[in-house]
Structures are given as structure tokens and as C-alpha cells.
Design a protein that fits this description.
8-stranded mixed β-sheet; Rossmann fold; disordered C terminus; alpha/beta
């Protein structure tokens, strides 16, 4: 019996010496926020129930939400976390490999990944789910019907779905049990009458405007690509090449949305390319023949939120 106990003690000491373990059965918590830059860390540590982040591309906003989920999960074993996307493909492209698996690899978290349902389980039983709203109805009801510690909505500028209803009436009740939070992130886009546009009205990346202009009740965060030290030099070099090739690119809506974080309309993306100078007038033109006829039209199609 004495030799048996000695062998058990020896094995316990050997296991405790392994990376990531402090005692047998205990997981050592890594500091996943150690390398975050100030703007990202402030967003992650914000305990507001409702918060949003408006930024340019390559500003690490998606990665920040991923870190937020992981960092919080250490204190909430078996809790559920949900990241929402327009499509399943977007979920895989943005988060699956470049956020969750990158965080797992960087900090040796030993997460278990389910490729079929796009879920990642932490060693303490907390689960991060990824859902594209193009999933089948059974899957959507299953995921949206649960309770969550945190929910994130990514690429909010592309959502034509009524995010207001989704956030306030489907997701907010789902975070009540665990006193959780909802994060909405994105860049400026072309849906200027959307809920995302209302959340961030009067703001551009790096600058918060008058809070009276935007949706009340939300904690606001914003920063530009220059704040991200991990891609700052690469983006600066890319912009230098782009402007050398075409100096006028800085005037395009696509550049201003993605690199400057400004709310401008990309007319090339509109079905009807309205031009105020060409398509409006204060007095009717006078022609040699004929007379004006007035017609009243009403569209019975789907209401569009696109400006």
C-alpha cells in the first residue's frame, strides 16, 4: 500500500508539472488579454449589457469579441456563447479558423471543435456556438431558443434583417438568466436606415459623435486600423501602394467605408443609382409639344432598408 501511494503521489507531481496544469484535474487559466491593445481591451472589459464597436477593416473587432467570449468563459463553466452571422460560410470564414482556432492555438486552451455544428467547447464545459442565419429552421430555433452569457453579431453593416427585433425581442431575453451582454460590431455600409446605422449615427471610425443622435442605451466603442499593432504596418503599406496606383481612390465610397470608417453611400451597389443633380429639378422643363401627365405608383414588393 505504501508503494502504491508513493506511485500515485509521483504521478500527481508529474501531471502537475505539465503545461497548463496546476493540480490534478485543475486547468491553469491563461491571460488571454495580455497582448490586447487599449481600445480592444476597453471593449472586452466593458460590462454593459448592450455594446457596439464601429471600426475600419483590419482593426481586430471580430478577434476582440472572440477574446471577450473566451476570457469571460473561464468564470462561467458550462455557459453558452453565441456568435451570429448572415451565413454559415461567413461564420467559418471570419471566425472558425482565424478567431477561435487561432485563440485556442495561441493560448493552448485545449478547446474541442465540432465541425458539424460549428461549436467550440472549453475545458470547463463552456460552449461557443457559431450560427449563420441561413441555417435550417430547426437549427435556428435550437440555437436562438437557448440562454446565453454573451452574444455577438458580426458584420452588422450587411444585415438587411431587422436587427432591432432580433436584438431586443429574441436575444436580450436569452441573456437575462446569466446577466449577459450583446455585442454588435461592423464597419459603415450602404444600409443607412438600418438598426446598425441608427446605433452609430453621427459616428465614424475613431470618432464618437453626438450621443443624442444615436440609439440610446448602448455603450459605444470605436477605433481605426492604426490602433491594431498587429496589422498596422501591413495596412499602411497597402494603402500607400493603392494611392500610388490611383490617387483618386481615397475619394471612393468603398475606400472611405473600409479604410476611413465613414458612413457614405456606394452608388455602384445601388439598384437605382440616384444622382441628385441629374434626377431632381425644381421646375418642370418646357417642351415644344405635349403636356405633362401625373402618375401615382405604389410598390407592393418587399420594403427595402437600403438608402
Amino acid at each position: 500500500m505504501k508503494n502504491f501511494r508513493s506511485e500515485v503521489d509521483r504521478l500527481k507531481r508529474a501531471v502537475a508539472a505539465l503545461p497548463g496544469v496546476t493540480r490534478v484535474g485543475e486547468y491553469k487559466r491563461p491571460d488571454v488579454l495580455a497582448g490586447t491593445f487599449p481600445e480592444s481591451r476597453a471593449f472586452i472589459e466593458d460590462r454593459a449589457e448592450l455594446k457596439w464597436c464601429l471600426s475600419t477593416r483590419r482593426a481586430a473587432k471580430s478577434y476582440s469579441v472572440g477574446l471577450d467570449f473566451v476570457h469571460d468563459s473561464f468564470d462561467h463553466p458550462y455557459a453558452n456563447y453565441l456568435a451570429l452571422f448572415l451565413t454559415r460560410e461567413t461564420a467559418k470564414r471570419i471566425w472558425w479558423k482565424d478567431v477561435l482556432k487561432e485563440i485556442d492555438r495561441t493560448f493552448d486552451l485545449r478547446m474541442k471543435f465540432n465541425e458539424t455544428e460549428l461549436s467550440a467547447t472549453m475545458p470547463n464545459g463552456a460552449v461557443i456556438y457559431l450560427l449563420g442565419l441561413d441555417s435550417n429552421e430547426t437549427q435556428k430555433k435550437k440555437v436562438l431558443g437557448g440562454k446565453y452569457r454573451k452574444v455577438g453579431i458580426d458584420e452588422a453593416q450587411d444585415w438587411a434583417t431587422d436587427l432591432r427585433e432580433l436584438v431586443y425581442y429574441k436575444l436580450r431575453p436569452a441573456i437575462a438568466d446569466l446577466r449577459g451582454s450583446i455585442s454588435v460590431i461592423g464597419t459603415p455600409g450602404n444600409f443607412t436606415k438600418s438598426f446598425w446605422a441608427q446605433l452609430t449615427r453621427g459616428c465614424k471610425a475613431g470618432t464618437l459623435g453626438d450621443p443624442q443622435l444615436r440609439e440610446p442605451g448602448w455603450s459605444a466603442h470605436t477605433w481605426r486600423w492604426e490602433a491594431n499593432p498587429y496589422t498596422r504596418d501591413q495596412v499602411a503599406e497597402q494603402i500607400a501602394r493603392m494611392t500610388a496606383e490611383n490617387p483618386l481612390i481615397v475619394e471612393t465610397a468603398g475606400y472611405r467605408q473600409n479604410y476611413e470608417g465613414e458612413w457614405v453611400i456606394d452608388t455602384d451597389e445601388l439598384v437605382y443609382k440616384f444622382n441628385a443633380e441629374r434626377n431632381t429639378f425644381r421646375t418642370l422643363p418646357v417642351y415644344e409639344r405635349g403636356e405633362w401627365t401625373y402618375v401615382l405608383l405604389r410598390s407592393l414588393g418587399r420594403r427595402s432598408t437600403r438608402s
